[in-house]
């Protein structure tokens, strides 16, 4: 009888939560996150700003990131975090010391929000981290963590893409050959031949593939509130009481 009552209560709780989500127009990200929104700020601009911060001699260059989400405006002012990791940090494995880069770690605040704190990282111009404000806590993550099927093509696409560009070569009588025609064809009417030249295939970087995927799906990040993260251990605690 107790088991039947427990199952009934669990189903009623699910129905209640599902109805609440529909009434609030919430968009579930996965079984643990009941609502999220997407971000599509200019990550290429942030990438350039991050590179300037890395090269800054004074090490006080700020990266400004602005976006709208969850019914409010965010203006993050970020600065490279030079204190969490020591300059003398060393990581050693069985093969010896490893190269360690910490120049992508940032912290800062939300401008206009008292006592706010932001920390995270910037890779390929995309911020991932935690935003703490007086009223809420937000998590920002790269979309690839939740939509991997879109980003796996970054590794699957060949590194070399055909970029053969045919050029028009003028003949001795002033005519020009069609760049889209076979360069070995000969024009028998005027006794001249047309040749084509091609530019060698150029390597398309992982960054370029990354940018292409973002253009395709229309966003690069997801942001959700701590309040929208379900407590997966709540039921177990209630069962133990």
| Tally of helical segments | 6
Mean pLDDT: 76
N-C termini distance: 18 Å
Oligomer designation: single chain
By secondary-structure content and strand pairing, the structural class works out as alpha+beta
Summarize the amount of helix as a percent range: 25-40%
What characterizes the major β-sheet? 8 strands, antiparallel
Low-confidence stretches: 6-10, 14-23, 154-188
User: N-to-C SSE series?
Assistant: HEHEEEEEEEEHHEEEEHEH
**How large a portion of the residues is in β-strands, by DSSP E?**
25-35%
Explain what you see.
With 241 residues, the protein is an alpha+beta fold. It has a domain at 28-158 and 219-240. 26% of the residues lie in helices and 27% in strands. The chain contains six helices and 14 strands. The chain has an eight-stranded antiparallel sheet with strand order 1-14-9-8-7-6-3-2. Strand 8 and strand 9 form a beta hairpin. The longest helix is centred in the N-terminal third of the chain and has 22 residues, at 2-23. The model is unreliable at 6-10, 14-23 and 154-188 (pLDDT under 50).
What's the helix and strand layout?
Layout: H1 2-23, E1 37-39, H2 43-55, E2 62-69, E3 72-80, E4 91-93, E5 96-98, E6 105-110, E7 117-123, E8 126-132, E9 137-142, H3 148-151, H4 153-156, E10 160-161, E11 186-187, E12 192-193, E13 202-203, H5 206-217, E14 221-225, H6 234-240
Antiparallel strand pairs: 1-14, 2-3, 3-6, 4-5, 6-7, 7-8, 8-9, 9-14, 10-13, 11-12
């Amino acid at each position: 009888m107790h088991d039947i009552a427990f199952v009934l209560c669990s189903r009623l709780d699910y129905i209640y939560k599902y109805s609440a989500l529909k009434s609030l127009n919430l968009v579930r990200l996965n079984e643990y996150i009941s609502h999220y929104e997407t971000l599509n700020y200019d990550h290429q601009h942030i990438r350039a700003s991050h590179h300037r911060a890395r090269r800054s001699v004074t090490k006080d260059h700020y990266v400004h990131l602005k976006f709208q989400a969850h019914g409010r405006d965010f203006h993050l002012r970020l600065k490279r975090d030079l204190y969490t990791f020591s300059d003398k940090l060393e990581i050693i494995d069985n093969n010896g010391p490893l190269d360690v880069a910490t120049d992508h770690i940032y912290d800062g605040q939300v401008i206009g929000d008292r006592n706010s704190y932001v920390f995270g990282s910037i890779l390929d111009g995309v911020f991932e981290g935690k935003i703490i404000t007086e009223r809420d806590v937000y998590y920002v993550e790269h979309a690839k963590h939740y939509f991997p099927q879109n980003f796996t093509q970054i590794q699957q696409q060949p590194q070399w893409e055909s970029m053969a560009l045919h050029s028009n070569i003028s003949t001795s009588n002033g005519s020009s050959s069609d760049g889209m025609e076979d360069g070995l064809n000969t024009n028998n009417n005027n006794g001249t031949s047309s040749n084509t030249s091609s530019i060698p295939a150029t390597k398309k970087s992982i960054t370029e593939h990354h940018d292409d995927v973002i253009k395709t799906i229309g966003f690069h990040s997801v942001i959700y509130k701590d309040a929208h993260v379900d407590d997966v251990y709540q039921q177990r605690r209630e069962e133990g009481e």
